[in-house]
Design brief:
Largest sheet: 6 strands, parallel
Distance between the termini: 35 Å
CATH class of the largest domain: Alpha Beta
CATH topology of the largest domain: Rossmann fold
Structural class: alpha/beta
CATH architecture of the largest domain: 3-Layer(aba) Sandwich
Amino acid sequence: MDQRTSSSIRIAFCENGAGYGGAIISLEAMLAQLATRREQPFAPLLYTGLDTEPYRCLARFGPWRHMPARPLVDRAALDRRRVPFASHIENLANVLPYALRYYRAFRADGVRLVYLNNDATTNFAAALGARLAKLPAVLHARGFHSVTRIDRMVLSWIGHCMPVSTAVRDGLLKVGIAPEKCTVVPEGLDLAQFAPRAPLPALRAELGLEPGDPVITLVGGLIDWKGQDVLLAAAPQVLARYPRARFLLVGSAYGRDNRFAQALEQRVAGPDLAGRVMLLGGRQDIPDLLALSSVVVHASTLPEPFGRTFLEGMAAGRPVIAAAEGGPLDVVAHERDGLLVPPRDPQLLAGAILRILDQPEWAAGMARAAAVTAQRYSIRNHTDAVSAILQRLIREPQQAPH
């Protein structure tokens, strides 16, 4: 352990999401920014429920602990058998032992504060472990919350919430969080990584694209609310006017199954789209793919808590279309630095894409304005805001748990 780590405040960063997505990407970016600071007041310790490569890589920022759930009883089986007090049985058999593992880990690691990444429900055990250890906890709310007993309970323990957008904050207020315990901290980008750049001829050649081909790109995991199906439904209308248009779907399946990804593969193989849509899977060259894109599309069919991908397109200086609900409403000024389109409507999405392709000079001006807007969302600003809240919580006296 280096001198800086031994003298810094130990913070447990807990991530218990379903897979590699925006929440873990954002956490990784913030930890990387913290690591660059000479006067770093925090010593991160990483606790994750998953142990795949993206999670193991967090060990470069500090000690990493794999904390998988180990359920002893099957709640679904209890419900099917109509076992009385099923929720109490689950809590005693599954949640409490899991929380005690967190409690023991926090105590052994000398943790001073617990940072919960994502939402209250997925972090229930970690939040309870923090409560048992009498540690302050902060929730970086990167998702929406339901009005459930568990959410209300966990949120009542939280010292402060950092919703990533106004939409998430409004949801937290409805659940019962006091306004003074909520500070909107939007996502941050490494703006140097996503700076506007010239398209790479080699990448264009790899993808079989001619210089004049319109390229419409959607970046997002292949899960059923990210809107790839809406974009594919809009594609024939775009192709009718621009037969050389090509659609890039960047992202891989994650979660419980890949049925949605399989349905996309079948649709892409249809005679009207074959050879015109590329399923690229997960890629490490997102900034370069954005650079050769004529339009960057965000088409989520559920309100996005924030939605990093449309902001990445803006930072790259590309014309952006985003669903007009959730996080994009905080960032995109319609027709000034992007287009906001009512979600779940392929015809309106196709019309917005055609509007950009039909008016390249106007679209280029909008893209330049988008790059300026994106400067407000730097990972530096994001990390400064988080750090200020963490330091304030550490200074505040904590109440004993009930």
